[in-house]
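Lab meeting notes turned into a lecture example. A postdoc, R.K., suggested we walk through two folding results consecutively so the class can see how the record format repeats. The first protein's sequence and structure tokens come next.
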Amino acid sequence: MCGVHFFFFLTITKINIVFRSADGTQQSTDLQLNIGAFQTTLVAPIENSSTIIASGQNFSVSANNTNGNANYDLLANGTSINTATGATYAFTDLNVTTNKSYELQITQGATSFSKKFNVIVNPGTVSLAMAGGLEDGINYNSGDATRATLVLDAPGKDFVYVAGSFNNYQPNSSYAMKKDPSTGKFWLELTGLTSGVNYHYQYWVVDTTPIANSPSLVKTADPYSTLVLSPYDDPWIPAASYPSIPAYPAGQEREVTVLQTGQTAYPWINTTFSKPKKEDLVIYEALVRDFDSDRNFQDLIDKISYFKNLKINAIQLMPVMEFEGNESWGYNTSFHMALDKFYGTSNKLKELIDLCHTNGIAVILDVALNHAFGRNPMNRMWMNDPDGDGWGDPSTENPYFNTVAKHSYSVGSDFNHASLLTKNYTKRVIKHWIQEYKIDGFRWDLTKGFTQACSGGDDACTNAYQADRVAILKDYADYGWNLDPTHYTIFEHLGTDGEEQQWANYRIGESPSKGVMMWGKMSDEYATLTKGYASDVSRVGNSSRGFTNRRLVGYAESH
């Protein structure tokens, strides 16, 4: 018996590696290890760095190699600006007035290396008042689909560029955001847009004198994004769940925000839905990911008869906001106003809500506003990560987050709900889901974390009555009721009766729709009961907790 053997000999010049966290939600940038006799070193600047310079400043590049002469070709924004041959390389780009993405190509025989780096020119910030009535994020012009105004609140930052598909991610000074003198917010009106076209963009946020261990440049999507594209998650989203998903821009990094003027409003069928009374609610909790095999909103739409047969009158969706990764319960939220594309499109969720309302079923949304995770723009703009490549913890300058959680149930980065910026953001999130999606109520996750009074490991303090937490959450409840007087507000607090009574009995005498509902955990008692043992389940009733009205959502199990 004979055989034929094939041998392949490969010349390996470099090995590319990347480090990922155990759950795949965080990863390093691509790392490259060079192998072989011919090696190159970029002496200046640092490889993959972004150097901030004044307009008109010179910019120097130098490199060397081993094993004799090599050919060098320096490209700026894709165009060759200098070539040379030798064992070393040195070149100065004179009078740089525009942002440039450089690539130094170094070749010896069949072996080549590529070194990339950038220059960001300080455009100087123009102080100019923005128009009245603008909100943070995207402001569409109702009378002109060729225009949209972007607003970013970035205290302490020196200048911001808007880079996007409309400038090939190579912004010049005309895409430097202006600064409103009264609010300090950055803003820029985009013009020349085409109605119905999907554009995408991100902010290049610069601090010319960052504090220790913080980045000078952060590239980030808009904090108020309603749709983001992700290089980490989008490639694995099934086309059946999100048909014609916009493509992530090649060559970019981090999430980008989608902008589209001239959008057609969803044609709501049911516009007169009357919510079930709070005391009559029978809630079905659903994780879209695990509800059925396709794991999308269409699965729930197809099972509407199943829900009706159960005689429930409310569906509570576990978080559907943009979270890190595609496989999650959703509590690792990064963009609270953006819908996670893994479950489907915006119109598909609206179709589900519309269908539920037509069948007498309210839709409650689970929201995780105690915290956010590392991809969150407000986290990334003020973080401990000097090169801006990772997902650092909040820095001491962060106006939204605590550097260390002020409670003992820490997860992600801890929002500081005493901060006016955090309160404004939270209220925008509430407003968005009520007005855009007709959401009937929120189940607020981990409300114990809304205090600033405790230290991270102090369980006794965290679980005790905290007056600041009571006041903050009453304010949020009021805001929701002002938008929709019959709105459901449910707190997953699991605290002392004395504190929970403050919300459950709040404004109850003014209207039968008032009073916050509390999440009543009874899983241990019911687990004991199902095993055939005696168990006291009396605390599933509101009177056992001192609530004036029926404002307890008792459950035998959740999640």
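The second example is placed directly after the first for contrast:
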Amino acid sequence: DVLRYVPGVTLSQGEGLRDQIALRGQGTTADFFIDGVRDDVQYFRGLYNIERVEVLKGPYALIFGRGGGGGIVNRVQKTPSADGLFVTAEGGVNSFGAWSAALDANAPLSTGAALRVNGFYERLNSFRDFVDGERYAVNPYVAFELAPAWRAGLSYEYVSDDRVIDRGIPSLACVQPCTPGPLPGNRDTFFGVPGVNRAGLEAHIVKARLDGKLAPGLSWSTTVLYGNYDKFYTNVYANGPATAPNGTVALAGYTDPTTRENLLAQSNLVADFAVGGTRHKLLFGLQHSIQSSANQRRDAVLSNGTLNLANIVYPTVTFPSVTRNTVSDVEVFSAYAQDQIGLGDLVDLIVGLRFDSFSIKGVDIAAGNRAFARTDQAVSPRIGLVLKPRPEMSLYASYSRSFLPRSGEQFLALTPSTENLAPEEFTNYEIGGKWDINPALNLTAALFQLDRTNATTPNPANPAQTILVGQTRTRGAEVALTGRVLPGWRMSAGYTYQDAKLRGNDSVRLAQVAEHQLAVWNRYDLNPTLGLGLGVVYQSSQFAAIRTGPGTTRLPPFTRLDAAVYYKISDVVELQLNVENLLDRSYYSDGYNNNNITPGAPRNARLTARVKL
């Protein structure tokens, strides 16, 4: 819901078990960060302990390292405050029977020290048959001053997520030439096996941070994160199109447990100084990470490999044999430097360079204990020029580059064929501008070209396999208007145009990238007590998988209208009612491949109550 209103972002189904998005045409499951530290495990991230969400677009290897071809998403965590005691409680329920409760409590411990505890519980439910679950998390965070201008913090987060895996509906087969679309009339039908489709996550995440001033104009910060993640993922899904509206659908399935340990450390040194009539903000950084993973896959054997839509009887399922069993260790060392040079009051020049050494070693136990290993070393540059014709306006041009090792985002294995392939590379050219129309209203615009070489994608005929597609190019434009338009009227509006295709072959279009997207949210406060909200989300058609021919499923365009009412009972209690899909339109919000398509929810309401003490 947060990212739907950000230009340049397209949502994906993520097989029903993880956050997955496309940023400027580049699909990703791993370009997520918490307080600037990599958070690349595949799971659904909560917002209960988050102060804000930052979306940075374009290759961001200079600061964040590998990946990040289309951009990154960074969550900024709520921090303790020694200024005073406060407690916020929130509860909500929606039309489908899902409900949640959350608590945010902050308490000073002594002068310069405080404890903040965030926690939440959510009971999941859906309009989709058999789909439910629960998740909860707790996050105590203590922060304190060690000395003047020096601050330390220690955070621990426990996350538990247990849910039914829902990979949506298939497409409807059609006689060529034609373009398949989603299977109609089955918005609620479950194309898995009740009691079998399930995913679980248990995570322990510890984060320590120390920052302060070494001298006037010289600051230093270090963050260390340890994460232990234990996941299981068992699913049966539609593995082909429906032969007819009341015909049959092929099924397949597998179970896929994964464990991972992450230990990541990064330090930044920032110096502000002037020399020779120029201003400098100089950044030096070091990062080191060790990530150990173990993954196993067992393919399903079904008592009946098809589902009859005229008379649905779900098959029995077993997982008798191991088809993948790997362990891997990744070690990364990175060093980077950037200088933001102020040339008078009108011009800033930004130049930076990063070096990464990415090493992976592992064993494919299922392939006779076959060892695999590879080391990639890359240099990623960044150059930017900012012109400030007026204090409230800036124009910019930038060039940046990033890379993705051949082991991919989750580095579970390297096959003999991929072990010798060069890493994927991303190169971004961009011009744009930012204008503070007034102190509370901001307009941004950008034109960009993002080229990807040595690109890979899931095979549309077999998503478990990866195929090499060559070079891709995304050209696009983004415009956003955010802030207070008039007294009482706030708006968040964004439009995106994206043309994403294979270079040299315009008929091959990238997966899950809509050519046009528009999202507008308005809130108007009638008085200090009552406010109204109205929003529209439009998305043009998109292909569910990379379009290599006429058999690729196309998701039709949709327009969705949402509304809200805000009522402030007192300074302590607030109520909020949100209604999604106000006109109750049928649509398909996103997908994962040709036959895993997510139907949009029918009209539904959510009532939320907040108490602030």
